[in-house]
């Protein structure tokens, strides 16, 4: 290729890149803070009172505005095993829900499906106990589907919308691309990706790890 042909090719390439950027083809991909959701439960106010004799009490704020870790802890009792000292997240919800990993599900002896938080119809139940009470949930045990919380502003700069699925590469000790990560958009959220303990351990996740979007569907 002579010099003139080379200049022409470079000019064409630059024009292509600039046009693509101005057409909205270039979006940011990250960094997205990746947080590990350890096993936890959400309780209805009725179930909280049945277990603790009082509404839930605040221990520490979580990354999502309004969400908090409670002082209360529960025991999960499944057909094959029990797990103690399980975190309770507040505020109370309409229905109680238990979020565990696949590894937990196997240890407890429940066949928990991967579901979006809140989508609990037809899921298995579980017995929950405190020092003061015991309750039986007829449903509500899930493995939470991995997801990213983001604001409408984040969604615009990443070029995604609520309900989209993306692939995210975790820049961790054992880097991993997680596919089918659900995008959840609300002005009540703050930017964070949530994975469970199995996903985190498989990637060598540590606190402070970021992710970047590698594909949009
Ligand atoms: Zn979440």
Structure description:
The radius of gyration is 22 Å and the shape is elongated. A hairpin with a 6-residue loop joins strand 3 and strand 4. The chain has 2 domains: 28-34 and 146-216, Barwin-like endoglucanases, CATH 2.40.40.20; 39-144, no CATH class. The relative contact order is 0.19. Strands 2, 3, 4, 5, 6, 7, 8, 9 and 10 form a 9-stranded mixed β-sheet that branches. Strands 1-14-11-13-12-15 form a 6-stranded mixed barrel. Helices cover 23% and strands 40% of the residues. It starts with a helix and ends with a strand. By secondary structure, the protein is α/β, with parallel strands linked by helices. The structure holds zinc ion.
Task: Identify the notable features of this structure and list them briefly.
single chain, 217 residues, alpha/beta, Barwin-like endoglucanases, 23% helix, binds zinc ion
């Amino acid at each position: 290729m002579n010099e003139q042909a080379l200049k022409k090719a470079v000019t064409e390439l630059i024009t292509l890149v600039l046009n693509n950027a101005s057409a909205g083809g270039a979006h940011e991909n990250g960094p997205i803070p990746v947080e590990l959701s350890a096993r936890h439960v959400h309780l209805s106010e009725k179930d909280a009172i049945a277990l603790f004799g009082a509404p839930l009490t605040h221990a520490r704020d979580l990354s999502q505005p309004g969400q908090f870790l409670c002082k209360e802890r529960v025991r999960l009792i499944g057909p094959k095993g029990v797990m103690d000292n399980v975190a309770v997240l507040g505020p109370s919800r309409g229905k109680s829900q238990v979020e565990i990993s696949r590894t937990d599900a196997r240890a407890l002896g429940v066949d928990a499906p991967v579901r979006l938080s809140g989508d609990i119809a037809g899921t298995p139940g579980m017995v929950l106990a405190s020092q003061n009470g015991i309750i039986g949930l007829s449903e509500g045990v899930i493995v939470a589907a991995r997801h990213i919380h983001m604001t409408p502003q984040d969604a615009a700069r990443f070029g995604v919308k609520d309900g989209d699925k993306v692939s995210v590469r975790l820049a961790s000790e054992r880097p991993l691309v997680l596919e089918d990560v659900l995008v959840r958009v609300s002005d009540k959220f703050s930017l964070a990706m949530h994975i469970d303990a199995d996903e985190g351990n498989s990637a060598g996740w540590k606190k402070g790890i970021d992710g970047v979007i590698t594909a949009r569907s």
